[in-house]
């Protein structure tokens, strides 16, 4: 093809020369004409920056806008999320505050009622009212708080206590595993006002690492040696000594052993009308609340029946004590007797609470209230009665105290499984008593 065309050009060389020139002239003319037209219609050129279709700046702006809009929207989404989280936290915080306020209101009303009775009894002397209307004083007035007794503890309590009351437990490393079940149950219920009195450094650290409010006492030789190495009963005796400061600072204390599982907030179930409000070692109405136990002595004939007053002991591992003079006197009397001999603190606690004055002896007149033995349940009630009774199984106790059994930890876990996790057979494998 190329060869042929070349050949044609060569062949027509001379005759086409003029035709070629005129064609070039025409092409130039057309080119100039088109140039003029373009110059007229597009004075700034086809790719002018002003052209709306090819505005690079605009395009870049748009792209960057598109990009930034999606960035901004994820930014604002994150901001919304953060605001939502903050609002939910605020909401939870407010709910907590509402609960605390409701609690305080209830406390205030209970307190007002008690105060009115105090004024009635302790105020101006007056005549007794009509039959059935007179009432003695159970709710003794509280002491004036004395922060100078222990300013450091006063500081801690101010932060932790709700309505001037809190749960207090003493613990050393011997009870670490139980302590963990104890505070986890408290945290799960959402009780804010509790404190561990750490008797050694290991427990203090253990509490700190678990967000458990802890108080390490100032060194005190006599107490510290018992606290560090003491067994169950020895440590139990310490609490009467240590509790005194709490009461002097004006706080009511719900003293708690650590072999206890919390299922509800105990502060919602207190009467607060007595110096001491205690759980019972009793296991039914009679043994827990007291009864007339008739002792039979046939040789006496007509007078063979001797009536005796009986009540199963108060459990000195779980009681609520108000900051009153009789309460502090009780602590002093028990601590004093325990320091003098090898007595069991629970026996001494009960003797001081219940024995009346007699020749050579002035009884303590502290007012007492026995807690509901189904709500503040000991492990005898649970394992001997409640777990075998379909109706009683439905009751949700406030606390369960594994006081009747030596295999405390597994039974505590079982209580959590049964009451918290709803595992119906969690209690089944244990014998009623210890084997
Ligand atoms: C135990 O006492 C409560 C009231 O304190 C009463 O409702 C209940 O019926 C009593 N139970 C028995 C078995 O007597």
TrEMBL record:
What biological process terms from GO does the record include? cell wall organization; root hair cell development
Q: What is its EC number?
A: 2.4.2.-
The reply to whether Membrane figures as a keyword in the UniProt entry is yes
Q: Does the keyword Lipoprotein apply?
A: no
> Coiled-coil regions in this chain?
77-111
Tell me how this protein sits in the membrane: Single-pass type II membrane protein
Q: Where is the signal peptide?
A: none
A GO-annotated cellular component: Golgi membrane
Give the location in the cell. Answer: Golgi apparatus membrane
> In what residue span(s) does the Nucleotide-diphospho-sugar transferase domain sit?
191-409
Which InterPro entries did the record assign? Nucl-diP-sugar_transferase, Nucleotide-diphossugar_trans, RRA1/2/3
Any one Gene Ontology molecular-function term assigned to this protein's record: glycosyltransferase activity
Regions crossing the membrane: 20-42
* Tree of life domain: Eukaryota
Q: Which UniProt keywords apply?
A: Cell wall biogenesis/degradation, Coiled coil, Glycosyltransferase, Golgi apparatus, Membrane, Signal-anchor, Transferase, Transmembrane, Transmembrane helix
The protein's matches in SUPFAM superfamilies, at most eight in alphabetical order, are given as:
Nucleotide-diphospho-sugar transferases
Can you tell me which family this protein belongs to? Answer: Belongs to the glycosyltransferase 77 family.
Question: Per its record, how is this protein called by name?
Answer: Glycosyltransferase
Q: Which organism is it from?
A: Populus alba x Populus x berolinensis
The major lineage groups are: Eukaryota, Viridiplantae, Streptophyta, Embryophyta, Tracheophyta
């Amino acid at each position: 093809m190329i060869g042929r065309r070349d050949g044609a050009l060569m062949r027509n060389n001379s005759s086409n020369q003029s035709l070629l020139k005129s064609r070039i002239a025409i092409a130039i003319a057309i080119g100039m004409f088109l140039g003029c037209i373009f110059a007229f219609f597009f004075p700034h050129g086809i790719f002018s920056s002003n052209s709306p279709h090819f505005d690079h700046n605009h395009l870049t702006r748009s792209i960057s806008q598109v990009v930034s809009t999606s960035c901004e929207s994820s930014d604002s989404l994150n901001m919304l999320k953060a605001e939502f989280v903050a609002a939910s936290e605020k909401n939870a915080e407010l709910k907590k505050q509402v609960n605390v306020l409701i609690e305080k209101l209830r406390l205030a009303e209970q307190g007002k009622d008690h105060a009115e009775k105090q004024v009635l009894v302790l105020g101006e002397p007056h005549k007794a009212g009509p039959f059935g209307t007179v009432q003695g004083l159970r709710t003794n007035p509280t002491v004036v708080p004395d922060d100078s007794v222990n300013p450091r503890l006063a500081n801690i309590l101010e932060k932790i206590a709700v309505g001037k009351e809190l749960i207090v437990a003493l613990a050393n490393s011997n009870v670490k595993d139980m302590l963990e079940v104890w505070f986890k149950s408290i945290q799960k219920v959402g009780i804010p006002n509790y404190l561990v009195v750490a008797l050694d450094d290991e427990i203090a650290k253990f509490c700190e690492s678990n967000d458990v409010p802890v108080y390490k006492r100032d060194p005190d030789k006599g107490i510290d040696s018992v606290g560090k190495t003491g067994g169950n009963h020895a440590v139990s005796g310490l609490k009467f000594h240590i509790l005194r400061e709490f009461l002097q600072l004006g706080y009511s204390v719900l003293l708690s052993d650590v072999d206890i599982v919390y299922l509800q907030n105990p502060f919602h179930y207190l009467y607060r009308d007595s110096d001491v409000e205690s759980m019972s070692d009793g296991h039914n109405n009679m043994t827990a609340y007291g009864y007339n136990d008739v002792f039979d002595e046939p040789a006496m004939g007509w007078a063979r029946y001797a009536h005796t007053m009986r009540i199963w002991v108060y459990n000195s591992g779980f009681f609520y004590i108000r900051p009153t003079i009789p309460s502090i006197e009780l602590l002093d009397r028990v601590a004093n007797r325990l320091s003098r001999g090898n007595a069991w603190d629970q026996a001494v606690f009960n003797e001081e609470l219940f024995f009346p004055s007699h020749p050579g002896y002035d009884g303590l007149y502290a007012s007492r209230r026995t807690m509901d033995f189904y709500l503040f349940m000991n492990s005898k009630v649970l394992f001997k009665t409640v777990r075998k009774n379909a109706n009683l199984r439905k009751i949700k106790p406030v606390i369960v105290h594994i006081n009747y059994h030596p295999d405390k930890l597994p039974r505590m876990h079982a209580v959590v499984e049964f009451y918290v996790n709803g595992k119906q057979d969690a209690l089944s494998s244990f014998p009623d008593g210890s084997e």
